[in-house]
Design brief:
transmembrane; elongated; YjiS-like; transmembrane helix; membrane; 116 residues; 0% strand
Length: 116
């Protein structure tokens, strides 16, 4: 049994369209690389800040060094924002745990107070 494939002009992309798609993909990759490179330079400038200034935005020097130690094709600014968010959520969770623990302590101490 023999089968034949037929293509309509619309089903098969033209050479011009293929070239345009390839050029668009290369341009997108290039723009992405430049953006990552600029963001890494901005992150590296954070090393000039002192610890107090970094703590105001929820970071440490170790966070900056860690973000810069990632692969060159990864965006260091994304790594920094993730670390800042993790630290913020951890601090909020610890504060919530302390409040719950304080309520438990107040409730248990009320049992042991003398009644007048």
């Amino acid at each position: 049994m023999t089968t034949f494939e037929t293509f309509t002009p619309h089903a098969r992309p033209s050479r011009g369209r293929t070239i345009v798609l390839i050029v668009a993909q290369v341009a997108t990759a290039l723009v992405t690389r430049v953006r990552i490179w600029k963001n890494r330079r901005s992150v590296a400038r954070l090393l000039d800040w002192d610890a107090r200034m970094l703590s105001d935005i929820g970071l440490t020097h170790g966070d900056v060094y860690s973000a810069l130690s990632t692969r060159a094709d990864e965006d260091a600014s994304v790594q920094l924002s993730m670390r800042s968010l993790e630290r913020r959520y951890a601090t909020q969770a610890q504060a919530k745990d302390r409040l719950v623990h304080a309520r438990e302590l107040r409730g248990s101490s009320a049992r042991y107070q003398r009644k007048a």
